[in-house]
Design a protein that fits this description.
The protein is α/β, with parallel strands linked by helices. It has 16 helices and 7 strands. It folds into 2 domains: 26-195, 3-Layer(aba) Sandwich (Rossmann fold), CATH 3.40.50; 200-348, no CATH class. Residues 19-229 form the Novel STAND NTPase domain.
Length: 350
């Protein structure tokens, strides 16, 4: 008999999801992206750090059949962090290597001039190509990559109908956006998809399904506890469910879980929330303070932004703070004496 403590924990992953078995939600985002791709439009995916942009990029590849995208589309994905600091020639070589492998075509050379040859060979097979670039801001900020080169890529993708799908953190490509000569010429090619928190039903599925697949059932009260401290953020749900799953394996009582889960979650998740806090504008921070204190704010524009980013969530036609621990954390984040992380952890883990 397999002992309960030896059960693998299905909530350990903190990296991008790479298979459909572990991917939950994002149905509306995927439908939007596939609609744009089928119409020949490139797509930029933006959102906050660790919200699931890379997982969504991977899903574009492994969900094509499920969403009935034309099977003639090939898909390649290049993580720009893996070739950070590369030259234009190295970027093209990596791109062509992936194209050759995905489309099953032999390419005699791997230089920029071969891009045209590769496109013609793809067309000769009656196929098209989706090119996904993760961490696109790394490419934009690479001093070895000129703005002119981005215009060359734009011209190539328009000419051959190969949509780009790029993902980056919101606000991280201001360099190209502010460039009057090259920014608009490149970016007007793209439709925009903002990746925010999961929808409520998607969050509940992410909480229940992995545990259920391992014959562990979370109670309704436990699910609500996870939603109370983690909101609809995929990463935070993973963190909370990891600890909940461990407590269930150890046979903890409901009372013990109610006390220990928020503490364990706080220790691991508070640095991520802290990062989000300092990414907010002063206006958004002030609106969030009002929500914590009074349960509302008069700044409707800031409220809309906080909803989009997931720090406020709409649930059954009512708005609430995404994480019940935020009020305690916000006081500590503004304390100057210790490092913020240590102050938060000391206060919550006493």
């Amino acid at each position: 008999m397999v002992k309960r403590f030896s059960l693998p924990n299905p909530y350990t992953n903190r990296a991008a999801i790479r298979s459909s078995n572990h991917f939950f939600g994002r149905e509306l985002d995927l439908r939007d992206i596939y609609t744009r791709i089928a119409g020949g439009q490139s797509v930029m995916i933006t959102g906050e750090r660790r919200i699931g942009k890379s997982s969504l990029l991977n899903a574009i590849g492994f969900s094509r059949e499920e969403y009935e995208l034309d099977p003639g589309f090939g898909f390649i994905l290049l993580d720009m962090q893996s070739i950070a600091g590369c030259t234009e020639e190295a970027f093209v070589e990596n791109l062509l290597t992936l194209i050759s492998r995905e489309m099953g075509i032999a390419l005699p050379e791997m230089g920029r001039r071969t891009l045209e040859d590769a496109a013609e060979r793809i067309h000769s097979h009656g196929r098209r190509l989706i090119i996904a670039l993760d961490e696109f801001d790394v490419l934009v900020w690479n001093e070895k990559i000129s703005p002119e080169f981005l215009v060359v890529l734009r011209s190539w993708t328009v000419r051959h109908g190969f949509p780009f799908v790029v993902a980056f953190r919101e606000g991280s490509i201001d360099r190209i956006v502010s460039d009057e000569k090259f920014g608009s010429a490149f970016l007007n090619l793209f439709g925009s998809v903002y990746v925010g928190p999961l929808r409520e039903e998607e969050a509940r599925e992410l909480i229940r399904t992995p545990a259920r697949n391992h014959d562990v059932e979370f109670t309704d009260e436990e699910v609500e506890m996870v939603l109370d401290i983690a909101g609809y953020f995929p990463l935070y749900i993973q963190i909370a469910c990891y600890h909940l799953f461990e407590f269930k394996k150890l046979g903890k009582t409901a009372e013990e879980i109610a006390v220990q889960l928020p503490r364990s979650f706080a220790f691991e998740a508070s640095p991520h929330f802290e990062y989000m806090w300092w990414r907010l504008s002063p206006r958004e921070q002030e609106a969030l303070r009002w929500w914590v204190k009074a349960g509302n704010t008069e700044d409707m524009a800031a409220e809309k932004d906080l909803l989009m980013k997931g720090l406020l969530i709409e649930e059954r036609r009512a708005i609430r703070i995404s994480c019940s621990l935020l009020g305690e954390w916000m006081d500590k984040w503004e304390a100057p004496a210790k490092t913020v992380r240590q102050t938060v952890r000391d206060a919550l883990l006493m």
